[in-house]
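Render KIF-binding protein in 3D.
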Amino acid sequence: MAETICTESDLQTYFQELKKHSVTYKLGQMQQQQTAGDEMQNPLQKQFGLVLGKIEEILSENFSGLFQHSRKLRNIYKIRIQSGSKTFLGQFFDKLEQTSIICKLLIVVIYIVKSSKDSEEYVKLMSMKTSIIYEKAKILLAENLLPESLKLLEEALDLIKDLEEHPKIAFLHMRIVNHMTYVLSRLGQLDQAKEMLTKAIDNETKYNPEVYSTDDLFLNTKKDPKISEAKLTRLTINNLQMLAWIQAKMGNTEAHLKLQHEILQRQLDVAEGDVLRWAESCFRLANVFVNHGDFQNGVYHLIAAEEILNPLEVAVVPNLEVCAAQADLARSWVFYGLQLFEMSRKPKIPKDIEPENLEEGESSKPKTPTTTKQIYLFQGLKVEIPQNLTMTQIENKDQAQALFTNLHKWIKRARLFYTLRNYPLQYVNLCLDLSELYRFVSFYEEDIDSQYSVQKRRYDALETLSQILKEMRPTCYVMVNVELTRELIEVQMEMMNLNLKKLYSPTDELKTKGDKDSLKRQIDAFSNVHDQLENVASTLDMEVKKIIAETN
């Protein structure tokens, strides 16, 4: 008993020294140098060797009977095999004493093998040895020594391959797989990493692992059940996140999105993590759905994030993190609207099609895809999608105006946080998004006057933004001046085009004269904007030449 306590004490001492050395030294140090002796060795490497050597010593002392009995059995069996004499074999088997010895040794060896591998002491020692190798691999990974780290992780997995289902080993096995798949993915071995993670995730429900850290093993610290459960949950979610990342890297978009939704569901079930971070992850996932044309899932996840964020705004004193999350949610809604407008507009743009390519009665209008994608729903979270919210292709002016009204509201909410004073670039981007929305709404207007009115509002908004930036934030104005000027020119060209349509449409003479005057004003305005753009271009050209001259 005293010897066991002494052994545990030695292991604890060695482990404490190992922790101290891991803070001071790196395993990668002195790897390329030739060492003359122990005094030149890497202290951290040496300490790892001491701990592993001590564990090996304990294993050999406590389980040496297995090898001794195996050696005796092998020697007796060797005598039997080496003799080719039938007479000798007959005499050998006639001796009951020798036969009894063989049977007893077989029973002893089988018992030792079974009892040793099932014993608490053996399992603990194996988990200690594996944990030390695992910790060493983690340090190498932190030092970006990927091949060396992978080699140690493979060694650690090989040590416990027969014990991976044991409750005291299962959690350690999951941790090693998590790190090993990360290293494999870094090395480009995605197929192997995917296979390992898929197997680990499928098997996690079969085990009831005992959660512990390397410190718990060596220092016998008392474990909190709640903390242990949280660690297991985090590891499970981390494995899912790793697999989702690998699926995305391999181009399996649908599998990636499904896993990301499952991760959010797991976090929702166990109430793991920050509520704010969950909502942010949810509307970022919505952006990915929208980017891939899945507007139904995109809207569902946006509303789910809104359901989580809205109750957080009830405080009298505003929380900046909540306000920032609400502003980013608003920008996600705007992104959804712009993408939906773009998707709806493309089929309606006239295309030059040869008459002979058109069959009689066939329409040249492209058809909207009718494939229905799976809707990923959250269990335990009430999400109601408004009936008037558009999630399919926009067909007419009323739908376009309804969507614009909704998105304009979200732009206003985003501006509450992204102000011109604190976030000028984000504020400008929101104004440019509003300009895009005006452009899309104008496309759906049915008459020229209405289209012109929308474009005029678009121009006024951009011109006002340009003047405010020039006066209030001149530095920001210099950064976005080219983009703003390009937008202003685009609006002027659209307005000129509309005036030309009115000019050459069959109308009365008085109206035509008015249109001519209006067209002249538009041409003058366009000329002014063109001159402004040339000035900006010449200024930029001078700056570039100045930089080149200074460089030379």
